[in-house]
Write a structure and sequence with these properties.
The chain is α/β, with parallel strands linked by helices. It folds into 2 domains: about 140 residues, Rossmann fold (3-Layer(aba) Sandwich); about 150 residues, Rossmann fold. About 35% of the residues lie in helices and about 15% in strands. The strands form 2 sheets. It has a 5-stranded parallel sheet, with helices on both faces. A 4-stranded parallel sheet has the order 2-1-3-4, with helices on both faces. It is globular, with a radius of gyration of 19 Å. The structure holds phosphoric acid mono(formamide)ester. Phosphoric acid mono(formamide)ester binds next to helix 2. Belongs to the aspartate/ornithine carbamoyltransferase superfamily.
Length: about 290
């Protein structure tokens, strides 16, 4: 595996192998790699950015970070020229988070530098998809027949696009519920089996619920009447929490009292901090797999 752009590029065998590596790193496996890794984050990030940096350092890789104002992209340089420049400087990998999608990716993948997607627009966030999958396997064991429900802003969610078909690959059943204005027209590529009309029926069905962040920064029109009405219709309230059969996840950051009521974020049915903790080992496994042979 030279790059990680999308979870759709991964076979079940590759995901199984990444899970084994992840388990080994979580269990204390130590490895040393050589070289430099660039982190170019044109969108904000706490979890992904710091856990990728920790993963690089766990593997003895040197890290160089640039935000939106620290690269010549601010002066109009294209992402393509940025990739070529970093490749010429000898960077082994570029971990990128960007507000756009780099279609066609093929033109970027010919460079010697490895590309690792840390979130591109609403397209993909592959390591978050792997975090959610691996956390669910740890907590539930086999995912065969497990009912996984994504709640909320499905249309703008790269977390949903990365994770849902991974759950489906592991024979889980995937359902979605959210405002009709925030559901993509065609959900079949993502392995979705059930689209619910109301949250109560959806929660009764689900064994694991993944709340998504309402991504207002990507809204081009008024998709919902208000955040208050969204919370009342879809958010995790105390009443709904009591009815959850299993655990819930959220990739973070949480819109407090919009996606989830404040007091519920770190309760016993919450896997949010486990997802954060596991992020370091998932990213260590991915970096190791991408860079170990080169
Ligand atoms: N889950 C996630 O991508 O969080 P950050 O935006 O904080 O990296």
């Amino acid at each position: 595996m030279k790059h990680l752009i999308s979870t759709f590029d991964l076979t079940k065998g590759q995901v199984d192998y990444l899970f084994r590596l992840y388990t080994e790193f979580k269990g204390g496996r130590q490895e040393k790699l050589k070289g430099d890794v660039a982190l170019l984050f044109l969108e904000s990030s706490t979890r992904t950015r710091f856990s990728f940096e920790m993963a690089c350092r766990n593997l003895s890789l040197r890290t160089y970070w640039a935000g939106p104002r620290e690269s010549s992209i601010e002066k109009g340089e294209t992402f393509y020229d940025t990739v070529k420049t970093l490749s010429s400087l000898g960077f082994r990998a570029l971990i990128f988070r960007v507000p756009f999608v780099l279609f066609p990716y093929d033109s970027y993948l010919k460079e010697s530098i490895s590309l690792i997607n840390a979130g591109d627009g609403s397209h993909q966030h592959p390591t978050q998809g792997l975090v959610d999958l691996f956390t669910a396997i740890e907590v539930y064991g086999s995912l065969e027949g497990l009912k996984v429900l994504y709640v909320g802003d499905i249309a703008h969610s790269r977390v949903f696009r990365s994770g849902s078909h991974l759950f489906s690959m592991y024979s889980a059943k995937v359902g979605v519920v959210g405002p009709r204005t925030l559901l993509p027209k065609d959900l079949t590529p993502f392995g979705v089996e059930v689209v619910f009309d109301d949250i109560t029926t959806a929660l009764e069905w689900a064994d694991l619920v993944i709340y998504l962040r309402l991504q207002e920064e990507r809204f081009k029109e008024n998709y919902i009447p208000s955040k208050e009405s969204y919370f009342l219709q879809f958010g995790l309230t105390k009443e709904r929490y009591k009815k959850l059969k299993g655990f819930f996840m959220h990739p973070g950051p949480v819109n407090i009292n919009v996606d989830i009521e404040a007091e519920l974020v770190y309760t016993e049915k919450s896997l949010i901090l486990k997802q954060v903790e596991n992020g370091v080992y998932v990213r260590t496994a991915v970096l190791y797999e991408v860079l170990k042979d080169a």
